[in-house]
Amino acid sequence: MHGNFTKNVRKIRPAPENNNALEVANQIMEEGIAKYSHPNFIGKINLHMALPNDEYFNWQWHFHNTGQQINDGRTCVYDADIDAVQAWNITTGSEDVIVAVLDDGVVDDHPDLPLNRQLRLPGSNFGTRDPFDGTPTDDPYPDAIWRHHHGTACAGIISASHNSIGVAGIAPDCMLMPIRIFDIITGFNQLAEAIHFAADNGADVLSNSWGMESTDPNFFPDIVDAIEDVLPNGRDGRGCVVAFAASNTANHLEGDPGEVQFPANVEGVITVGASNRGDNVSNYSPISNLIDIVAPSQHAYPSQDPNEDLEIWTTDIPGSYGYQCPGNYCDENSDPLPSWGNDWASYTGRFGGTSAACPQVAGTAALILSRNPRLSQSEVVDVLIKTADRIGGYNYVEGRCNEVGYGRLNAYKAVKNAFPDITPILHLLLED
Hints:
The chain is of the alpha/beta class. The chain has two domains: about 1-45, no CATH class; about 55-420, Rossmann fold. Helices cover about 25% and strands about 10% of the residues. It contains nine helices and eight strands. It has helices at about 20-30, 85-90, 150-160, 190-200, 220-235, 355-370, 375-385, 410-415, 425-430, and strands at about 100-105, 175-180, 205-210, 240-245, 270-275, 295, 310-315, 345-350. It has a six-stranded parallel β-sheet, with helices on both faces. Strands 7-8 form a two-stranded antiparallel sheet. It is globular. The relative contact order is 0.14. Residues about 1-5, about 45-50, about 140-145 and about 425-430 have low confidence and may be disordered.
């Protein structure tokens, strides 16, 4: 060993019973035998978290919830969020990780979804239009053009840039692969082909905020075969992570538990339900033994409760053809959402359902793989469910319940535990 040094020895002396700990500490200092002496104070530790400065981030309560006011003057239960900000202190993703959004397309001109982070591939449109054009606009059906905003909203939850404008996404530094599977009519075979297409072109995570009106887990065998193929064989044999929205079929206000619909009921996928601003199951989210995890979304649909509305902020189709379109929420007078700033029509505060919950899980899976790309599909799922927060006071049996599965997504805990495979090695080193 080089040089001379004096080793500082830290000693803890219990204060005699019924004595003041501070007075005992002062007596020790007066004896001249200690460099410093003080009681073992207990205090609150504040994390110096860097909050995104995006214009609407304060309204994204599902990512960072301090009990702030949200849409329509409502407030949330403190910390009923996924701890996204804490996760971003560890990673905001990697361009080597690709998230495929299988939906109705993603726009190619959004200020928060730059083209250099979109992997737009020839043949990625499995709808009824040009297979080389996966954008959701210019639909040949005039009465349907405004409906194709769902995929852009899902993409924003996953991948919106942290850039001072609009909203923030969970994994802003990961790559986005838009795959259009919806149009007026889409064949089931095309859906199966789209799943294969995503995995064959390098997608690590598949986000699916869609389903069919069937509880049969083998409703369409081609789709089941496609899922069963990419789960173990994607990512060069490590397996693709496949997340599906459970459905919005419940109405707990009327005693209807709802149902998990195909393909969210296919074994091996992550079945995602929704929690609300009160950190309980959302009114429309199914209660089922198939639910794996939930993520925050609005409490109820206006059709279920006239006092409720959608609450999730995300990206929208720029201009007049998205959620912010005539007849929906088109201006400040028709829907008094807060912070009407620049380019407000490119964003919406009226997204929700399990459709909004699913991409939160997919984006978090991408963060996990950004830290540890060696993990298998099953290991990623294991990290997600083991780090979920057990919310709602439900009856958890062996860690799960039918209301919220293994609990509400916690992105920070999940990312922090992205190296579960090295724990035994650390224990061994400590023992040696």
